[in-house]
Each structure stands twice: as structure tokens, then as C-alpha cells.
Write a structure and sequence with these properties.
alpha+beta, two-stranded parallel ribbon, two-stranded antiparallel sheet
């Protein structure tokens, strides 16, 4: 897949994947009482939209970590090779020294918070799209077409973790 075309579609969207302020705040409600100025890491932060919500709600600094864009593009284009089940991901987190405090799957509305501006951008770019960009459109349309009837069988999961060493 042509990375320039990929970033033409995805660059500067309000978010790079499903999620919402409400989902982030729900994650916070599920945590036990935190100390003042807790140490927080947001893994997979994308554009940092939820990171800002966390920082404002917790009044603390957040370490936000996300793959470089080229790595993210490869990840998506290779068909989610490391996507795991919730039990497998919990086991991995525990094996790496984390306590799993809670998990929850994002609702369908969080997906549409992501897909709606993406579809609007595709509609806007479609009349002038070159073959490389049309290829990106096709992959994106396939993802959305799969989500419509099968979105209940997979999803994004919030993992609320605490490092056992701290």
C-alpha cells in the first residue's frame, strides 16, 4: 500500500481509531482510587485525544506512546497480525508484570466516532483520488463493510493495568 495515499486519507483526522471521551472517562471510573498525581502511561495513544482527557481528569502528566506512522501503516496493512483475544491479552499483560484491574469493550458509537469523519473525508477526496488513494479507500471500505454486520464479534478493548512493581 502506498504510504503517501494512506496518510492522505488518515492524516489530521480527529482520531486514529475507535474511542470517545465517554469511553475514556468510563475507564477512569473503573479504576480504584488513585494517588495524587499518579504515573500514567497511555499505550496506543494515536493523536493523543484520549491522553488529553486523561491529563485533564487526573491533573497529571501522561507518558503517551504510539508506534511511528510507518510502523502503524504496516500494522494495519498486514491485517492485524498481533490482534489477540481479551483472555490472551490479559495473560500477556500479567506475564509482563501487570495487574489487570479491569477491561471493557468500546461500544459501537465509539467506532462511528472514528468512521464518520473518515467516510466524510473519503467522499470529499473521491472525485480527485488517484489509483493509490483508491486502493486505500477500498481497504477502508472493506473494513467498514465488515464492521457493519460483524462488529459484535470483535472490538477495541480498554485494558486498565497497574504495574505490580510500583
Amino acid at each position: 500500500m502506498n504510504l503517501e495515499a494512506f496518510f492522505t486519507l488518515y492524516n489530521d483526522l480527529p482520531q486514529f481509531g475507535p474511542g470517545s471521551v465517554a469511553c475514556t472517562l468510563e475507564a477512569l471510573k473503573r479504576l480504584p482510587t488513585l494517588p495524587p498525581a499518579p504515573r500514567v502511561v497511555d499505550v496506543g495513544c494515536g493523536s493523543g485525544r484520549q491522553t488529553l482527557v486523561l491529563a485533564e481528569a487526573l491533573l497529571t502528566r501522561i507518558l503517551a506512546v504510539d508506534p511511528r506512522p510507518a510502523e502503524a501503516a504496516r500494522f494495519w496493512t498486514e491485517g492485524y497480525p498481533t490482534m489477540g483475544t481479551t483472555p490472551r491479552n490479559r495473560a500477556t499483560a500479567e506475564a509482563e508484570g501487570y495487574e489487570v484491574l479491569d477491561t471493557f469493550t468500546l461500544p459501537h458509537s465509539a467506532w462511528w466516532d472514528y468512521y464518520t469523519p473518515l467516510l466524510q473525508r473519503m467522499e470529499r477526496l473521491h472525485p480527485t483520488a488517484d489509483p493509490a488513494l483508491r486502493e486505500v479507500f477500498t481497504a477502508t471500505e472493506e473494513e467498514i463493510a465488515l464492521f457493519r454486520p460483524h462488529g459484535d464479534s470483535y472490538g477495541y478493548v480498554f485494558y486498565l493495568l497497574r504495574n505490580r512493581a510500583t
